[in-house]
Amino acid sequence: MSNTPTDFDDINARYRGVIDAAVDGIVLIDADGVVETFNPGAERIFGWSASEIIGQNVSMLMPEPDASRHDSYIKHYLGGGAPKIIGIGREVVGRRRNGQLFPMELAVGEVAGLAPRRFVGMVRDISRRRAMEQALAAREQELRLMFDGAPIGMFTAGLDGLFNEVNPALVGLLGYSAEQLLGMRCAELTVESDRPALESAYRALVSGARSSFNCRVRWMRSDGEVLTVEIHAAVAGGSMSVGFIIGQVIDHSVQVRTELESREARERLAHVGRVTTLGEMASAIAHEINQPLTAISAYAQACIRLIDQGQADMPLLHESLQAVAAQALRAGDVVRRIRGFVSHHDGGREGVAMNDIIASVLALAAIDAAANQTRIDTELAPGLPLVLADAVQIQQVCLNLIRNAIDAMLPLPEAARVMTISTRLGDEGVEAQFSDCGPGVAQEMRERLFQPFQTTKSEGMGMGLSISHSIISTHGGSLRYSDAPQGGACFTLILPVALGTT
């Protein structure tokens, strides 16, 4: 049964519908390369309208040298030669109406059963894809340069923890070759006692409980040197199933050593300050110890005389020996307090009561105060929370402030030599105030009061307040000066409250 004109019209309409709806460009040419069909997709790609391009040679859509060679390609194919492009999909360069060149995928085939012979080309503009690929390649190159050139150690690792990549900085930091590191895990580099913390953070990361972690641990170099490093790690790659870990390694070893050396230097300086303070109190301390020693000597000589005279009254001897023991304990207590004050210690901090620190200092300061006819009053608030502090260092600060007050009031009559120590809970922590009735601090001295070698004493070195200020600062507190209500000096020592004691 033959097709009717209506059937042909229907087929032609469907054909045109498919051609026009196609996203890709469709170009139909004859055996001479003349364009017969140019669909809307081709119009969008090349910028020519169908009316402008139909009847023209398809070579106008190509740059040189392909434009000049195109007709010869067709003749070669029609003459039975091997196809250059017909029947072979390939990537070529097209030319838009404005002269712009762009990459495109081209598939050319011969339409079967037509005479004269016809060829159809399917064109896909891949310029955006190529631009994205080039941008991705450039970004990958940038990331590679950043990874390789980073001044800190960087690595990528699989979810099993094995290193996939390590940058030169990490290789230099650890002393292993890149090949050696690629067969290792972070845990293998970590000092054994630090591994549980690292492994806990790693498990939380891999399980999805955390998106990233920071962990400070100690790593072992290939030569055995211990490094303190901070690891910043996160999961990359979009999902846990295909993800990987990327990490940065920051070496804090120099910082840790510097902080340790600085702390040790502060400890040595503080120790010198304590010894210096006791040196300045030497006369009063010697007097305090001499009193029980004199009493011991007197009681002992009395006991000897009684025995030599044959008048050994046992109750009297017993009473005298008890007095000897009591005076020996008194002298020993003074020595014990002095030894505790000047001893080298590890600088450990613990929760301590400010009132207890002041009470222990007053036991030493009372000797100096009595020698200089100075009265010390206290107004200590009860129930204060603990402060996290090195008790010996805070004692040193308190004793220095008390001695400064005693020295400042020496020109006053004995009855006027009164200082007050008070404590309270303030907005910034536990406060201890040391107020005196002396002349205060001159205005020109106040700005540099806590700097080294600043003193108003004729024989002072000017290190006491500087050391005290440094000690309180390292405790996270502050030491401030103000005028006392009675016209003298007022130093306020503030220490933060220990966590969990409010």
Structural account:
The chain has 502 residues and is an alpha+beta fold. It folds into 3 domains: 5-125, 2-Layer Sandwich (Beta-Lactamase), CATH 3.30.450.20; 139-251, Beta-Lactamase, CATH 3.30.450.20; 264-495, Histidine kinase-like ATPase, C-terminal domain (Heat Shock Protein 90). It has 16 helices and 17 strands. It has helices at residues 5-21, 40-46, 50-53, 66-78, 127-149, 168-174, 178-181, 186-189, 195-206, 253-280, 282-308, 314-342, 354-371, 391-408, 443-446, 464-474; strands at 25-30, 35-38, 90-95, 101-111, 118-125, 153-157, 163-166, 212-220, 226-236, 244-251, 350-352, 375-380, 387-389, 418-425, 430-435, 478-483, 489-495. It has a 5-stranded antiparallel β-sheet with strand order 2-1-5-4-3. Strands 7-6-10-9-8 form a 5-stranded antiparallel β-sheet, with helices on both faces. A hairpin with a 6-residue loop joins β4 and β5. The N and C termini lie far apart (103 Å).
Walk me through the topology.
Elements lengths: L4 H17 L3 E6 L4 E4 L1 H7 L3 H4 L12 H13 L11 E6 L5 E11 L6 E8 L1 H23 L3 E5 L5 E4 L1 H7 L3 H4 L4 H4 L5 H12 L5 E9 L5 E11 L7 E8 L1 H28 L1 H27 L5 H29 L7 E3 L1 H18 L3 E6 L6 E3 L1 H18 L9 E8 L4 E6 L7 H4 L17 H11 L3 E6 L5 E7 L7
Parallel strand pairs: 12-14
Antiparallel strand pairs: 1-2, 1-5, 3-4, 4-5, 6-7, 6-10, 8-9, 9-10, 11-13, 14-15, 15-17, 16-17
